[in-house]
Amino acid sequence: MTIIKKMTSLALVAVLALSGCADLDVGNTNAPDQSRALAKPEDVESLIKSTFLTWWQGVHTTGGSFNPGVMADANTSSWGNYGMRELASEPRAAANNSPAWRYAYALEEPWYSWYGAISAAKDGIASLKAGQEGGKSFLASAEEDKRAEIFATFIMGISNGMVAIYYDKGFLIDANTDFSQAIELVDYNAQMAGAITLLEQVITDCNANASVAVPEDWVHVTPFTLGDLGKVAHSFVARFKAGVARTRQERGAADWAGVKSHASQGIPFAPMGDGEYWWTRTQYYTGVSASWGRADYKMLGPADNSTGYANWLGDGSDATIAGRTAYSMITDDARITGALDADGKQTQGLYAKNEYRTRLIASRGTYHQTYYLFNRTRDYAVDQGLQGPMKDINQSELDLLQAEAALRSNDGATAATLINNTRVGNGALTAAAAADGVGTVADAPNALDGGSLWAKYKYEKIIEGCLMHPYTGYTDRRGWGDLVKGTPTMLAIPGKELEILLMDSYTFGGQDAIGTPGTAGKIRENGYTSRGFTIEWEKVTPLTDADVH
């Protein structure tokens, strides 16, 4: 399986800008300089439309897309691929930020993908502006110029936002950033504030140009207008406002009125896969392979009617964790199991299936093992041959963000109604009600009838978000204070980038760092080069059993 690695750094962006050597290379190492390469309107429009695929692959296709799910204990894996075993094993270890680490690419690729998208979007806008000198349109019309500018700004917003979600600091870059001046690093809060400002401008501009069509090959959604793009931007703002927090205290202090407002105006978003470059690794691998799509008991266990989950958890000591073994749950959640068959065995549920066997290697920790296959995406991966909708934003995410806003304002009735959209609609569980009691953010996830609304909400948010957008389960658990102790709550700037920036190496996570910022305690051949970035989209290759190690 080919892994594409991003080759250069943001530091090089500044160097190239200062030296006047930045270039755009479309499959040609002897490419002309940037101003010549972007002189043609069709080249500029092609560059701008390509930025979404670059962002998408940074989120959904890099090998690192599996890591947030296993760090959140939604998925479980002891395979070495992409560093999953090292990041998910217990006791948790510090994230390995050495450029020499075998899986360093898994921590680097998101960074370079998102900055590659930002760089290309910025170059596209600069070329548009240069071509508009004298009051003329650069593309076929002023409307097309505006559409391209709005789209590029959207890409800069969601890319800066993802850097803020995953890394502790970054370079906040927009269309006005002057590469002839020093670019300072900012922390994740400042980076996210800048990202949201960009997306709010996108919303305003989209509302003013709502009827303008966005070509299908820009986002692989049709029909799609700038009005729709503005609604998707609302969805991202809601997600980002809630998800950027690193601690329970930070999430509690988030702008929940803003989360509610944006989520209520947002819409789901699911580009269509094409079985080639438009694909999602997490939804493909887990949908097609029982070795990859393993569901952690920490995600499913809160729906267990028996004492099995409580016994599996034990007292949480290292000895208890090491002794955990797979077992069969008893649950009423239709997402986990269907009706019993003639032999009394659980059948396929809406999202999961009890295989009555484990597939992970016992010597790597039986606590990783589970009987349950979470094959929710088998429709995309198998039935549709990777050519169906690739879900990134579901209506359930938007509803449940509004439910959390309601819980934080002590509005149990509204929260219960929103929780029941999936609790009853997908899980066929007993309806939640205001009489259950709001509870507190410290409540553990619990799908059972005696649980508080907070407990039921947490369970719904994790199971409904799993294997959709790869990062939401991780950002939810860290913001609730529910990550396993020692888990990194963010990544450092990649080690390779630190070397180029002449900065000391650092990282987060591990037992020695518990209680410090960045580490969880337990409260309970294709592409282009732009400004030195080599952007190569990875084409899907068939998954085989030999791909796990």
TrEMBL record:
Q: InterPro entries, alphabetically?
A: TPR-like_helical_dom_sf
Give the Gene3D superfamilies listed for this entry: 1.25.40.390
This chain belongs to the protein called SusD-like N-terminal domain-containing protein
